[in-house]
Write a structure and sequence with these properties.
InterPro entries: SNase_OB-fold_sf, Staphylococal_nuclease_OB-fold. This protein is an alpha+beta fold. It has 5 helices and 8 strands; from the N terminus they run αββββαβββαβαα. The protein has one domain: OB fold (Dihydrolipoamide Acetyltransferase, E2P), CATH 2.40.50.90. Strand 2 and strand 3 form a beta hairpin. Helix 3 packs parallel to helix 4.
Length: 191
């Protein structure tokens, strides 16, 4: 008799926890990542990070991989390189104007989340950062990972400078994808 009551009790507890778990799973909030319609590629990879970051507004795009933010600081994207348009000792390189224009469409006038790697600045005193376009000041982990997106669309190449290597493998993979799909500079410029 005691075993029978214990079995019923155990079975009841198991059913209770199973139903409670199912209800909490059904009522948990869903992640909703929205990609603006003017970005044609389905290859944007949401990147989740635990690194400290800042939110800033981009006031000017200098070229394909360099921007100026609201406090007049110049920011250089980490891990990528776009063809030159403003270098004092080089002429405008193939696909440089396109990369600069694309970057302008992507970030100018928008809020961006900026994440530091190891280095604070480069030799020209530009901040070195990974950049995400976000939709509001409250956004934390969503947005378009600009460094990756420029490489993946063929507007930039992967360019690793240790010790800033947090996303270097991701950028190398993005470059392979762009090259394999003949995107951007890979379809227009001779190597």
């Amino acid at each position: 008799m005691k075993q029978s009551i214990l079995r019923i009790l155990y079975f009841s507890l198991i059913c209770f926890f199973a139903i409670a778990g199912f209800i909490s799973f059904k009522s948990s909030p869903k992640l909703n990542v929205t990609i603006p319609s003017f970005f044609p590629s389905p290859t944007i990879i949401p990147t989740v990070t635990t690194q400290p970051y800042t939110i800033n507004k981009v006031i000017r795009v200098i070229d394909g991989d360099t921007i100026e933010i609201e406090n007049k600081q110049v920011v250089r994207y980490i891990g990528i390189n776009t063809p030159e348009t403003k270098h004092p000792n080089k002429s405008v390189e193939c696909f440089g104007k396109e990369a600069s224009f694309f970057n302008k469409q992507l970030v100018e006038g928008k809020l961006v989340r900026m994440e530091k790697d190891v280095s604070e600045v480069d030799r020209y005193k530009r901040l070195l950062r990974y950049i995400w376009v976000i939709e509001s000041e409250n956004a934390t982990q969503s947005g378009i990972f600009v460094n990756d997106y420029l490489v993946r669309q063929g507007y930039a190449v992967a360019s690793t400078f240790p010790p800033d290597v947090a996303y270097s493998n991701q950028f190398v993979d993005a470059e392979k994808e762009a090259r394999n799909n003949n995107r951007g500079l890979w379809s227009k410029c001779n190597e």
